[in-house]
Amino acid sequence: MSAKSELIKNAYVEPTILILLRQATHDIHQRLHKHPLLQPLVQQSLTKQHYILLLQAFERFYQSVEKRTSSNTLYDDFQPNSNTITHDLITLGAQINPINEQPVIVIEKSESAILGMLYVLEGSKLGGQLIAQNIKNTLGYTEKNGTAFFYGNGKQTGEQWHRFLLLLDSRCTHHSDCINSACQIFEILEQWLWLVYKRYI
After folding, report:
1. By three-state DSSP, how is residue 154 classified?
2. Domains and CATH numbers, the chain
3. Which residues form a coiled coil (predicted)?
4. Could you read off the pLDDT of 42-74 as tens digits, one per residue?
5. From 51, 85, 141, 178, which residue has the greatest number of CB atoms within 10 Å?
6. Which contacts of 3-10 are long-range, i.e. CB under 8 A and separated by 24 or more positions?
7. Rounded to 10 degrees, what is the CA torsion of 16, 21, 27, 28?
8. What's the rounded Cα separation, in Å, for the pair 32 and 27?
9. Are 140 and 42 in contact (CB under 8 A)?
10. Where does the chain have alpha helices with state H?
11. Rounded to whole angstroms, how far apart are CA atoms 188 and 114?
12. Are 126 and 158 spatial neighbours (Cβ–Cβ below 8 Å)?
């Protein structure tokens, strides 16, 4: 860990909104860990076919999410980027996504609501590090040939997460908007993954 990262870690105190978000999203977060589309990502049984389908589902999900955040430059450092998923798919030889529809993302347009959505997306990058490592171990792919999305910021992921939490703490003025948004995004993702699972597995 760099001296800068250590300084950030030592100076950091969990904001109230983070505690509330964690409590409010705990149950659905746990359900997603057990979802049949997601669970293989951390198992040795993961196949290339399953991994590609999951990336295709995420590509459509993130394309929909981008429409909700792209107009706000405040979050430039935390913008979701479906292009990284598309790049992984092309690298893996899956240029055409068979999933034609996208999930509908409907949340409040307030800044606090956007922060709630970004809490879900930024938090997922922490787990992405474990997923990237398992994919490397089971399928042999790295951030250079198929796991750029899950690899994310690599060793800087933790530091990026703390920067987001500082933004969350300083800019979130309506806790209820933020919490409702985070819960909605988790629920939309869960429903979307079940739809993809039932149609394409």
Report:
1. helix
2. 3-200 (1.20.910.10)
3. none
4. 999 999 999 999 999 999 999 999 887 766 666
5. 178
6. 4/159, 5/158, 5/159, 8/159, 8/162, 9/162
7. -170
8. 9
9. no
10. 3-11, 16-33, 48-69, 82-91, 111-139, 148-151, 157-171, 175-200
11. 15
12. yes
- pLDDT, tens only, 129-143: 999 999 999 999 999
3, pLDDT greater than 60 = no
Question: Max Cα separation, the chain?
Answer: 49
State CA 175 to chain mean position distance: 21
Q: In the numeric block, which tokens belong to residue 89? A: 């798919």
Please list, in sequence order, all residues whose beta carbon lies within 8 angstroms of the beta carbon of residue 133, skipping any fewer than 6 positions away.
none
CA 128 to chain centre: 8
Which amino acid type is present at position 120? V
Tokens standing for 193?
């993954």
Residue 61, both tokens: 């999900």
What is the rounded end-to-end Cα distance, in angstroms, of the chain? Answer: 41
